[in-house]
Amino acid sequence: MRTVRFQVADMHCAACVMRLEGLEDELEGVERVEASYHRQQMEVTFDEARLPLEAITAAAAKMGYPIQLIE
Amino acid sequence: MESLSFANLLVLFITGLTTGGLSCLAVQGGLLASSLSHQVERDVAASPRRSAQLAAPIAGFLLAKLAAYTLLGFLLGALGSVFQMTPLTRAVLMLAVGVFMIGNALRLLNVHPIFRFFNLEPPKFLTRYIRRKARSSSEGLLAPVFLGALTVFIPCGVTQTMMALAVGAGSPWAGAAILFAFTLGTSPVFFAVAFLTTQLGARLEKNFRIFVAAVTLILGLVTVDAGLNLAGAPFAVSRLWQANSAAPTAAAALADENAPLVLEALNDGYAPEVLMAKAGQPLELHVVTNNTRSCSRAFVIPALKVEKLLPATGTEIIQIPPQTAGTVMPFTCSMGMYGGQIRFQ
Predict the structure, then answer these.
(1) What fold is seen in the domain A2-69?
(2) Which CATH number fits domain B237-344: 3.30.930.10, 3.40.50.300, 2.40.160.40, 2.60.40.420?
(3) A60 touches chain B (CB under 8 A)
C-alpha cells in the first residue's frame, strides 16, 4: 500500500470532495481517498501492484479535476 | 415573518431554478444518476418506453427531496423562532445570514482561500454512506426515494444559504415555505440532468459559477441591507434612498397638527415611505391594511420596540411618545424588506 498526496485544481465546493472520494469505489486497487476542499488536496491510499499512479491522475482528469502529485 | 408573499416565494423559486439547480447538480445529480444507473443498464435495449420508466424513479427522488427539505425548513424556522425575541436579534441573524451569503459568493469567485470556510463540509462518514448507498442501490422506486431524502444531509453552497434564510425567517411555516419554493425550483434542472451524465453536471457548474456567485452576492447584499433596516440603522441602502426622496405629499400631512399620522401597509411596501410629524407632542400612528397579504403586515418600529401583526384588513393604532425635532424614526416589516421613516420637525 502506498499513500500519495495530490494538489487538486478546480475543486470549488464540498460536492467535488464527494465526487473525488468516489474514486475509491470506481478504481480497482484504491483503498481510500480523503479529499479536502479547504486545502484543495486529496490523499489516496492504493495498491501499487494493482494500480499504476497514472491511472489515478487520469481518472481524476476525466472527472474534470487536473491533479498534481506533491508527495 | 408571519407571512411570505407570493412574490417572495417566486424569487426563491427562480433562485432554485437558476442558481440552485446548477450548483447542486454536481453532487446530488450524481447521486440521482447512479441510483438510476441500474435501471438504465437493465433497459439497455432502449425501448421507446425507457424514458417513461425512468421518469418514475426521478420523480420519486425529487419528491422525496422536496419533502425532506420542506421538513428541514420547518425545523430550521422553528429553531429561528426560538431565538426570535426582538427585531434586533432577528436583525443580527439576518446580518449573519447576509455575511454568510456574501462569503459564499466570494468563495465561488475564488477571491481568497479563507472564504472556503464559508462552505460547510458534511461529515465524511455521511458522504461515504450516501455514496455507497447510491452505488449499491437495487432497482425499484425505494432506492431513489431514500436517496432523495438523504440529499438533505449534503446541501450545496446555495442551499446552505437558503437554510440560513429559513432560520432567519423565524417561523416554522415560513422556513418550510422558503425551502419548499427553492427546492421546487431546483427540480426541473435535476429532472433534465437525470438523463445526462454526472460529468456534464460538473462542467455545467464550473461554467455557471460566476453567474451563481453573482446571484448569491446580490442576495447576500439584499439580506445585509434588510438586517440593517430591521436594526433601524440609518445607513441601510434602502434608507439612504428614502432620505434623499422627500415626499411632497407627506409634507402636506404636517399642515394639520392634530390629525393622526396615517400609513398604508400595502402588499409591496408602505405608503407614504416618508411621513412628516410634529415634534414635541404625543402622536397617534394609524397603520391601515386593506386586504394586505405580504410580510408588510408584520410591522416593526425598532426605536420604540413596537412589533405588531396587523390584521389583513383594518387599522392598528400605535401611540408615539413626543420626539425631539430632527428625529428620524425608521419603521419596517419584520423581515426588513419594506420600510420607511417618520421625520419629526
Answers:
(1) Alpha-Beta Plaits (3.30.70)
(2) 2.60.40.420
(3) no
